[in-house]
Structures are given as C-alpha cells and as structure tokens.
Amino acid sequence: MTGLKLPNDYDTFLKGLKERVRAAQLRASLAVNRELVLVYWGIGRDILARQKEHGWGARIIDRLAADLRREFPEVTGFSPRNLDGGRRRGQAPASP
Hints:
By secondary structure, this protein is mainly alpha-helical. The protein has helices spanning 10-54, 59-71, 80-89. Helix 1 (10-54) packs across helix 3 (80-89).
C-alpha cells in the first residue's frame, strides 16, 4: 500500500501482533502434542490390558496397526513398532 501514512508506533504494534500469533501457534502445537501423547499412551495401555485379559498375542499389534493406518492414513504414529512401544509405555502411569 503506497501513499499510506503509518502511525509512528505501527512497526512496534505489528511486531507485538506477530509475537502474539507465534506464541498462540506454539501453545496450540504443544496442546496437540500433549493430547497425542495421551492418546498413544492410552492405546498402549488398552492393548496391554486386552493382552492380559484375553490372551491376545503380539500379532494383534500388526492387525491393529494396519486397521488404524487404513482409517487414519494422515496419522503417522500407528506403525506396529509405535504401537508396541506404546504398549510397553502403557505399563507406566501417564505423565503428560
């Protein structure tokens, strides 16, 4: 926008707005990460409980991974390795 006379404090005002947006983006990202950690921990805990209660073997993890990846192709955390790691971490209490 040429020819527009900006107030003297415009740059400071803009800088403050940018900082607020970046801070909000960071808080949102941290909140999403926290929720995902809790979801993965809960999935691991639930797999572990089912294995204990129903005698599910390790192969169920491969099937769960395939089914979850098919349903949520945009989510990268549902490999058999990740689910097995979640199962092992599910033995510990959640600490977000």
